[in-house]
Each structure stands twice: as structure tokens, then as C-alpha cells.
Amino acid sequence: MHARIMGILAAAVLLIPACAHGPRAVGSDALFQISTINALMLGVYDGDFTCGQLLQHGDFGLGTFNGLDGEMVVLDGKVYQVRADGIAYAVPDKTGTPFAAVTRFDRERVEALSAISNIETLEKEIARMAGNENAFHAIRIDGRFAHVKTRAVPKQEKPYRPLVEVTAHQPEFELHDVEGTIVGLWTPQYAQGLNVAGFHLHFLTKDRSRGGHVLECSLVTGTLAIDTCLDFRVLLPDNNEFKAADLGQDMSEQIRRVEK
Amino acid sequence: MHARIMGILAAAVLLIPACAHGPRAVGSDALFQISTINALMLGVYDGDFTCGQLLQHGDFGLGTFNGLDGEMVVLDGKVYQVRADGIAYAVPDKTGTPFAAVTRFDRERVEALSAISNIETLEKEIARMAGNENAFHAIRIDGRFAHVKTRAVPKQEKPYRPLVEVTAHQPEFELHDVEGTIVGLWTPQYAQGLNVAGFHLHFLTKDRSRGGHVLECSLVTGTLAIDTCLDFRVLLPDNNEFKAADLGQDMSEQIRRVEK
């Protein structure tokens, strides 16, 4: 993997490129994913992997929990569960997850950010810095936010409804003048159906007490770090719900409605 | 992974299912892939991994070589290169590959096959036995074939043309009354763009002298073995051609034309 450090405020730029000679080494910097977004969209809300297993493959990422019980934020090697009350809870290793993606976060490229007024502008800044839209990127923004609007999916009971129905009635939260961290992923368009193509951002306050899936935000000041992943690994569930799901359909429009 | 042995001619059936209690272990039985089919479709014919590296992650699979120099068959831990003359050549470890997928083949399920008159019927038999269309499957058929029609893509020179143009003028080969092995993959529909959704079958004669990408076949008698992979790993190229390619487009129709 590359190790690049970009100077604060586009000042001194130090590049330490990977050796480009000879065949590439097979690195350990994988984005490790459990199940697929299409399965989650269709109501496959119970998985056969635990958060403890997830942490063996990464210290940074996002997802959800069995029964769709809230938004997962994995940060600095800890798993946080933002439940439908907007509160972030610690998670025992044995808690199950039906969908999540993590990596061992390397601060490959770091850049200071000044005021950014909305999520679209923030995403443009990240895309500019990330550069390679055909790679996966893990995205970390530590900063002070003027405003963060989040949601957290509420725990479901069987029979499970599709995700697009659940998020139509989701609890939403407004946080103002708050310090915290955005934990996000960029997924290439060609992997739509496996994960959410484009940006997928979760949030956790600096005191690790609140957060959720980011719907809108404005930044006062912060630091953006990007870890590019050229190694993408997916573990598929071994259960009947996953086997029977009609995963081949194009769910791009429903995913857009669920994510925004 | 499951270990299942299904009796010859649907006679005695012995099932050894995986333990379904508690969280699932993260297995080592991955389907390990280099690059994506969409990149290959768009003419990204040079990769930054070698066949030697590929063999570290599997002993069974298929792909192609740098410059699109023929069809790759990986069988029993050896890489064979079926070039545009229809002949299978041994491959040095240092040979590069722009697209390939391999696994460590386990004979999880084995079944005898009797006469099958065409590729469509063969694929239906495999699908019936594989069962889970949302998983990846490695497929091995050892047998005597009445007929196998193959093709082998010819080595390209820069500037590279898209794959759909190359295969419009591909060398094709007819093999009659021949013993050999089909080396194939099933990719779920949701992973179209990453690999070829559906079946992708290559062939190698028993004496390892000829083969190619299977366009048609009829079987006299044989043995079908399936290895289901619930762990899918993709390594993306780290080169400018891959970064710049418009990989997000739906190339399903072009892929169908290239493969059949």
C-alpha cells in the first residue's frame, strides 16, 4: 500500500510512493466485509459473524448489528453501537453482525480541512484527495462540526421488512457545535450491490456518546485522512435467508433512498 | 466450508455438514481474484501480479495473461497457457496476469455424470448440484468428451482494443473424443462487473496439451466436483490504466458476447 503524507493546507508535500518496480506484493491492507448491501436491503438482518471476529480484520469501519439494531461505528479498534435513541453503546465481542466492513486504518494521506458548509462539498473534497474512484477508500475526518444530522435504524422484529421500509420511519438526530469523527467508506461504482457505491459516512462524537449514519453535516475545522484499499475481501453468510434472497437485482435507487 | 460427498449416480449419499452452532469461523477457502472483468473488457490487459503470486492463493482456476496472451487454466497447482494456436504451454512463475481467479480446490461435493449433449444442459446439472446461486463455486469436471469447442484469445499489441473487438476474430478449436478437465467458476449475478456473472468454463486435455475457453461441449461420461467459496477476495491493480477505466458502466451484454 502507498504511504503518502500530504502537507497541511497544501503546503509542504512529502510523497513516499510504493516501489513500482517488479511484481506487486500482496498486502495485508484489505477492506474486509461481511455479507452484501443487497442482502441487507432485502431484510437479511441476521448474520453468522461476530463483532469480535470483525475486529480481527480491522480497527476502523462501519455496518450494523443483528436484527438491524442500530448503526455500527468501528473506531480505534472499538465497536460502538448507535441505537435508535441516538446513544452510542459499547458492544460485547459476541454481538452478531449481518453487514459490516472494516480495515486496519493507515493514515496514508492526511490533509487539513477548513470550513465546509454541507455534505456534498465535503464529499467533493474527499473525492479530490482520494483520486482513484476505482479503488476502495477508508475515510476518517476528526474535527469540530457546526452541525451533524444523523439517523439510527431501529431494531427489527421478525418477519423483517425491507430496509427501504425501515428507513422511511427512522429516528433522526441533530447535533450542533460538536467535536467528533466521521468514519466513512468509498466504494467504486462497479461494486454496487456488494456495498454502497459512492460514499457511506457514519459519525461518533469525541466523547463517544452519540452518533449515527450521517445524513448532513457542516464542518468548522478538521483533519481528513484517507486509507486506500486495493484488496477487497467479502465473507458471505452461510444461512438460508442469504441463499434465498434475490440478490441479482439492481437496487441502486433503493440504496440511494436508504442512504440519504 | 462444508465437506460433502454425494454418492455416485445418486446412490448412497453421505453428508458431513459443517457445524452450524455458534459464530462461523473465518475460513481460508477463498476465491482469490486479480482485477475485475470490466477492466479486462475495457482493454486493461497488463497487470501487476505474477502467476507465481497467484499460485500462493490457489491451485485451481482460470484467467488470462499480460497482453491478453491466451487462456489461463490453473489445475492441480500448475498454470497452463493456451495460446492462439490452441496449444497449452507451461508458464514461468514470473509471467504476469491482468485478470485471474483461483482457489484451493476442495472436492466438497462429487457426483458422477453420464452423457450430456450440450453446454446448456451441463450448466443446468452444475447449477442443480451447486444449489446456492448467491455463493461462488469452483467447478471441476474430469471426463471423456465427445466434443469440446474452445477459443483462445490472441496476444494483443498496444494500443489495446476492447475485449469485445478481440473476440470477434478469435481462433476457435474443435476437439473430438477427448479426455480432459473442465475448470470453471460460478459467479453470483450481484458480482457482475467484478467477474463474469454465471458460468465461466475453461478446458484442458488429459495430456495437458490443448484447451481453451469453452464455447460448447458434449460429455460421454465424467465426474463433477464442486467447491463452494463463501470468501471472495479481489486484488485491484495499482496502475494508471485501471484507475482511468470507466468501470462503473453495465457491461453485461458485452460480457455475454465475449464469453459465448
Summarize the structure in short.
The structure is a homodimer. By secondary structure, chain A is of the alpha+beta class.
Can you walk me through this structure?
Two copies of one chain form a homodimer. Chain A has about 260 residues and is α+β, with helices and mostly antiparallel strands. In chain A, the strands form four sheets. A seven-stranded mixed beta sheet of chain A has the order 8-7-6-5-10-3-16. In chain A, strands 11, 12, 13, 14 and 15 form a five-stranded antiparallel beta sheet that branches. The two termini of chain A are about 30 Å apart. Chain A is built from six helices and 16 strands. Chain A is globular and about 50 Å long. The longest helix of chain A is centred in the middle third of the chain and has 12 residues, at about 120-130. In chain A, a hairpin with a 5-residue loop joins strand 7 (about 80) and strand 8. Mean pLDDT of chain A is about 90; it is low at about 1-20. The interface of A and B includes residues 132, 190 and 235 of A. Strand 16 (about 230-235) of chain A pairs antiparallel with strand 16 (about 230-235) of chain B.
Radius of gyration of chain A in whole Å, from Cα? 18 Å
Total of helices of chain A = 6
Estimated structural class of chain A: alpha+beta
Number of strands of chain A: 16
- Give average pLDDT of chain A, whole number: 91
For this structure, the quaternary state is homodimer
The strands making up the biggest β-sheet of chain A line up spatially as 8-7-6-5-10-3-16
User: Mind summarizing the main beta sheet of chain A?
Assistant: 7 strands, mixed
The string of secondary-structure elements of chain A, in order, is EEEHEHEEEEEEEHEHEEEEHH
Overall geometry of chain A:
globular
Uncertain spans of chain A, ≥5 residues at pLDDT below 50?
1-21
